[in-house]
Amino acid sequence: MTKSLFRYIWRHSRRDQLIIFAVVLGSLPFFYMSLDLPRKIVNEAIQGRAFEDGRMTAPFLDFAIHWPSWLGGGETQIVEGVQVGRLELLFGLSFLFLFFVLVNGFIKYWINVQKGALGERMMRRLRFELFSYALRFTPEALRNVRSAEAATIIKDEVEPIGGFIGDAYIQPLMLGTQAATALTFILIQSLWLGLLAAAIVGAQFIIIPRLRRQLLVLGRQRQLASREFAGRVSEVIDGMEAVQVHDTAAWERAEIGGRLHHLFDIRFKIYKRKFIVKFLNNLLAQMTPFFFYAVGGYFALSGKLDIGQLVAVIAAYRELPPPLKELIDWDQQRLDVQVKYDQVVAYFAPERLRVVEDAADEDRGDAPLEGALAIKALATFDGHGSPLIRGGDVSLDLPSRVAILSDGTAAASNLARILARRDESYGGEVTIGDRHLSALGHGTVGRRIAYAGPEPILFPGTIRDNLIYGLRQRQIEDIEADEEEQRRIVEAKRTGNPLDSVAGSWIDLDRSGAKDHVALDAALLILLDRAGLGDDVYRFGLTGLIDPERQPGLAERVVEARHRLRERLEREGKSELVESFDQDAYNAHATVVENLLFGMPTSPALKGRAIVEHAGFRAVLDQEKLTDDLVRMGVAIAETMTDIFEGLPQGHPLFEQFAFVHADELDEFAAIVKRSHGKGRGGLTRDDRERLLALPLEYIEPRHRLGILDEAFRERLLQARKHMRAMLEERDDPGVEFYDPDRLTLAAPLQNNLIFGRVNASIADAREQLRAVGAEVVAEMDLSSEIERVGLDHAVGPAGRRLTAHQRAIVNLVRCLVKRPDLLVVDGALAPFGEKRVAELTDFLLESVGTHSLVMVLPNDRHLARFEKAIAFEDGHLVAIEPHPSAAPEPREAPSEDDGEERGGEDGLSEAKEGQPGASRRQAAE
């Protein structure tokens, strides 16, 4: 990055700056005229000097330069104008003054808009460049980079820089010319008043900036402390599990409290210093009017200055302090922003970044990695300078299956990271064929080498998004350039942003070997199934939502499966397992609110407790006279819950069964119940009534068994259902997708669509029986692979936290395999698994790499015989060894229940895939 902020700004915004410069300079005559017109209005129109000596008319729209007495006096006529009367002159000059005020206002508006746009474009450019630099951090630099710090720099610390960029050149020019124009006007009217104003202005420019220098030091301290604070908060959040396991929350609070005190101390010093400076600045600014009134008034009384000139001088001075104050603020901001910019430049120093490669050279160098892997005199050191690898020469022909046998130190992992180009700080030489590993382009490494480490890195999104992440290296196809897309491209060119659109096609199907996206999904499912994650993906599919665009035709098949399931249940005498949704019947196993809506809410206003604030919903309840009865039910539920949960710890199973009230709400509801008993309904606030109203909406009589929902009340709820639907259907967006036995409910999970009802909780083994029947229907209709495709849309959450450690590890391995690298390096990726699963996954990897190479770090020699070649360490030296013959592969066994996730779903269909082989998925892939 350019070290000078002003040079960086000028390089990337010169054209826009010059255009605004021209407008600023062009606005000065209008500004000057707005200063001079008050003098003419007072002297010529109001006092009538233009009509002295019996003249009945005076020139209007004339233009003359009036020279001050210290420049010889007199005037130079430029334009003679037209002759008008006194009243016409007054109104003409007044409207002319208004015209110039409007023109000046419009010019300022245009300049400010252009400055803002310029600043935003430059900030967009700067943020993108910093993000691009972050993508170029070397592996060594990444060890010392805190993600929260980098994010804070890119998001927050460049914000004041971006705000200053638009003002960097334009603000001093605009403010300086305005101040100079006003000061020049004052000098023309009165030399002494002008010199007096100039003296006070000079004092401001000398004293105020010096007092503000200490603010820069404090600002720098605040910035560093804030950055460290953000990094520490990020560390605590990332390590929250350890904090909770070891109960160190009090210590963490104290540590964060200390940092906040340090920040407060710095910020308080800044505030004290800043307001002292502000006080002095305002004091100096207010002294000038005092001198103007005193000295200027004296000059007016003595005849050295006329009243019009004095009024004009005072009016002109009103235009002087604001630009001067803003100029001083600009200088302070300049120094402050330069400090921030210098720190940003230091953070993204060139020595921390990888070298940028030419795209043409990158394409030419993107050839398959073939030939022998040769390691010569390799030497590495740990972070403390102690040697890890002390040398040794190894040569292995590729493609091959190579094991790196650990000696109990970090040497094996270090070697694996070197081979994957995740560590570039080593001595010696590593070549593949005739190509040096260190000389390979970064794009070539990304396409030809894959690395699966001990900590899987998953991004927020779906399982599919993470699996195909390695296929999104370049945009394959552009999108159609409509008007909005063309505008985006224009702005991207102006700000140095990429012209590629994330909405375009990025998935490299050729690299994956799939002919289309359906085949790609099938290939993903095969890999996941072979890796032992197929059942989990199937379960995710049952609880997922169907995307009709991705899977056209699936909706009709699910509805057909729904009818077949219902027919089979009736044929086998098991129809009572599920109470189906019926427009004319109350579903006893659904909640009260679900019976009222008879559908799945799609609007946030109709979800959860927010529904009690929905005006239409409340209107229907009031119309059917249900509100008071539901509030009474809420009081009964709250009273029962407070009695049941009294003394129980948080996390007790009863809290899950009675999910009306959270543990931390018990005291609040106890107080509400007390108020309702003490003063009746009149003692309840509106908030109390809404909270009570929300409780019975989640009530299910067979589950909660509080005996508060009788048949008569159910009939009233059914009557309200009709009015509720009519009310919602009148709206442009009903906010609810209503249940229809012949149509898929897109807002409902797939398994809910299959069942189209609620499981009868009064039958002990209803879920198990339903699971068995559901498995038969799914097998009969061959829906397994389609359900698994829905499972690929399962959201993994931030950093994959919605997946187990086993699931994250498998997704990481499959992601590496999907892009079919020439060399796959596995380093500790199987650590979460037991010994039997490690053996199975090792065989899976050996089979899946096909004709390519696999390098895998082994903690011991138990699975060494599975590999063709091996590298070991003797006193830190690399040696090639033959795989130990005694470690013969063990017969593969089916995955144990301990190694996988137990399956089960809310409505009992999560094991419907049981007994289904992977043949259907393999056929789909073929």
Question: How would the blueprint of this fold be written?
Answer:
Layout: H1 5-46, E1 58-60, E2 63-66, E3 75-79, E4 82-84, H2 86-135, H3 139-142, H4 147-165, H5 170-189, H6 191-238, H7 240-246, H8 249-301, H9 307-318, H10 321-347, H11 359-365, E5 371-381, E6 387-389, E7 394-398, E8 401-405, H12 411-419, E9 427-432, E10 435-436, H13 442-448, E11 449-452, H14 463-467, H15 483-495, H16 509-512, H17 517-530, H18 534-542, H19 554-571, E12 578-580, H20 592-597, E13 599-601, H21 615-623, H22 627-645, H23 653-657, H24 666-679, H25 686-697, H26 701-704, H27 711-729, E14 736-738, H28 750-755, E15 757-759, H29 766-781, H30 784-791, H31 805-818, E16 823-826, H32 835-848, E17 853-858, E18 869-874, E19 877-881, H33 919-925
Protein traits:
33 helices; ABC_transporter-like_ATP-bd; alpha+beta; disordered C terminus; ATP hydrolysis activity; ABC transporter transmembrane region fold; Rossmann fold; ATP binding; 926 residues; membrane; 6-stranded mixed beta sheet; 56% helix
